[in-house]
Amino acid sequence: MADYKVALQDMNFLLDDVFAVAKDWETMPKLREMVDPETAKAILEEAAKLTETLIAPNSRAADEEGIHFADGEVTTPQGYKEQFAELAAGGWVGLTAPEEFGGMGLPKVLSAQYEEMMCAADVSFSLYSGLTVGAIITLDSHANDELKSRYLPNMVAGEWTGSMCLTEPHAGTDLGIIRSKAVPQEDGSYSITGTKIFITGGEHDLTENIIHLVLAKLPDAPAGSRGISLFVVPKFLVNEDGSLGTRNKVVAGSVEHKMGIHASATCVMNFDGAKGWLVGEPNRGLAAMFTMMNYERLGVGIQGLGAASRSYCTALEYARDRRQGRGAKATRDTSAEADPLLVHGDIRRMLLTMKSFIEGGRAFSTYVGQQLDRAKYAESEEERSNAEALVELLTPVAKAFLTDTGFEVTVHGQQILGGHGFVREWGQEQLVRDCRIAQIYEGTNGIQALDLLGRKVAGSSGELLKPLLAEIANFLAEDAGQWEAQYGELAILVQEVERITGEVLGHVKSDENIINSVAVDYLNLIGYVTFGWLWLKMARTAEISNYPANFIKSKQKTAEFYFARVLPRVYGLMPAIEAGSKELFAFTDEEF
Ligand SMILES: Cc1cc2nc3c(=O)[nH]c(=O)nc-3n(C[C@H](O)[C@H](O)[C@H](O)COP(=O)(O)OP(=O)(O)OC[C@H]3O[C@@H](n4cnc5c(N)ncnc54)[C@H](O)[C@@H]3O)c2cc1C
């Protein structure tokens, strides 16, 4: 595996020039106090050092070793304990957490870059702290003060980790049918009983306590998703003075043996009358858990991006070094018996597809991060709710499109190495395996598409889509410079998205299958068009920036490549969406 090299220049370009985030920070009193451009740069440099030199070098060995399970206990691979201790000591777990609990209170737009580095360095390792951050946000948003002060300081400090316990053997996507029970006790706590499966970081040896956030049903709960409550269930009970008390009745029954993320413990968790406390309102647990899931969904999208950017580092280095075959006459290196792979058109096609998805994806996650910050910190109610609406719309796109394109990128990265991509030595096959799960967990990508088209777009009669399309259209109304053709094409595509959305919504009443049948193609259409906008935004910004000529040229040429070779995929998606559900439901069950 080639050394991982963080794309610091690109990250700084996005933060400083494309999205001018420091201007935002100046208008937000809470962030103004916490961060300025110099601090942000220093943090990114430190994060790059940490991930490049400490975490990335151990990722392949950790994957080979995997986790060990015996008698309900998980031992993580060599080096993980020390790595986690370093994260905790550096305050990285509490990067965005509130100051009152010991966090740094930094903006999400910055942590999105850090998360990309962590995922690129080692997806498995990143999950232990990633889920902890999600649990911190959920407790901070929904728990009462007593629970917050009992758990948050140690979680923010990285002394304890968090887990998210939703899935049960018979209930994955459909959480409305979970069976775990929570019975109220006289002391105000609840007795939790049930089995949860696939729980990431449900058990491990990295920290002395694990704080589980668990969905369960109260005895009198209404059926379905309106009858789910959220509980906090610690592995070890916490005494009044904050010290660890007795072991709670929650244990790992087994761990999964899986395709990828071998160093992440995926556990079956048995709750057998475990002591828990209600978080938020009774029966409102799913809504509270969505705080965690929405946060995690951008994080999972970034997992795809991280794996992709690591794969590109190796593929590019390999394509420069490996010599096979001859290029066209003009590119031939006559001093050697063969030319580097980089001379071949097909290798360039794959590398540039990778580059256009990675840099487009980085711009997208940065944009969503900026909207999350505005939704939380902007001064006016109007700004906050505008940003919140964009986040709602874009969260499923970020989760699904960044992981689908991320997976495609890792497969290209494997292909570029030929047989050497299939064997373990170079680490490309690990990235394919590690990236694949990101398309599945945290709500499958199919479910993300339903969320986008069904809940968000159809649910708002198209209103939620309008601000995004308006932002793109406003950008396109400005001077196009040398990009007239691309501006023109994208403007037509924005109109096409509006037209097709109207067409789909027009059929919802007469065709109850339409949303479920076209949602994935629709999400991809939104993804490709949004990336088109971001590529033009980057190309135009690069032209007036002070970055080195190579960087500017590379941005412009990748934008041209994206429009010529990647964006045309939408011309296959649009007729597929318009075809609707007819052919899918022409089949009887027996005809499959
Ligand atoms: C390694 C790993 C780690 C995980 N970590 C966690 C964790 O920490 N905490 C946790 O709670 N869970 C976790 N999960 C569970 C994960 O979130 C679920 O596997 C996922 O949400 C899908 O649920 P399922 O596997 O039961 O599939 P199912 O719900 O059975 O779905 C099967 C297929 O049917 C599709 N489908 C289902 N319903 C519909 C519908 N209405 N319309 C169209 N298509 C539909 C799905 O998209 C999918 O393709 C993890 C899973 C894995 C494998």
Helix content: 55-70%
- Distinct ligands, ions and cofactors found in the model: flavin-adenine dinucleotide
Q: What class do helices, strands and sheet pairing give?
A: alpha+beta
Tally of helical segments: 21
Percent in strands: 5-15%
**End-to-end span in angstroms?**
43 Å
Give the radius of gyration: 24 Å
Gross geometry: globular
The count of strands amounts to: 11
Uncertain segments are none
What's the average pLDDT? 96
Largest sheet: 7 strands, mixed
What does this structure look like?
This protein has 592 residues and is an alpha+beta fold. Helix content is 57%, strand content 11%. The protein contains 21 helices and eleven strands. Strands 3, 4, 5, 6, 7, 10 and 11 form a seven-stranded mixed β-sheet that branches. Helix 8 (123-142) runs antiparallel to helix 10. The two termini are 43 Å apart. Flavin-adenine dinucleotide (FAD) is lined by residues 164-167, 172-173, 198-200, 258, 266, 437, 440-444, 446-447, 450, 516.
Short account of what is shown:
57% of the residues lie in helices and 11% in strands. By secondary structure, it is α+β, with helices and mostly antiparallel strands.
Which keywords apply here?
592 residues; alpha+beta; 7-stranded mixed beta sheet; 21 helices; 57% helix; binds flavin-adenine dinucleotide
Give the SSE layout:
Elements (H helix, E strand, L loop, with lengths): L7 H11 L2 H7 L1 H6 L2 H19 L3 H7 L2 E3 L2 E3 L4 H10 L18 H14 L1 H20 L2 H12 L3 E6 L15 E4 L5 E11 L8 E8 L12 E6 L1 E3 L5 E4 L2 E6 L10 E14 L5 H37 L23 H33 L3 H36 L2 H4 L5 H9 L8 H13 L8 H11 L7 H24 L6 H30 L5 H18 L3 H10 L2 H4 L7
Helix pairs in contact: 1-11, 1-18, 4-7, 7-8, 7-10, 7-11, 8-9, 8-10, 10-11, 10-12, 10-14, 11-12, 11-18, 11-19, 12-14, 12-15, 12-18, 15-18, 16-17, 17-18, 18-19, 18-20
Bound molecules: flavin-adenine dinucleotide.
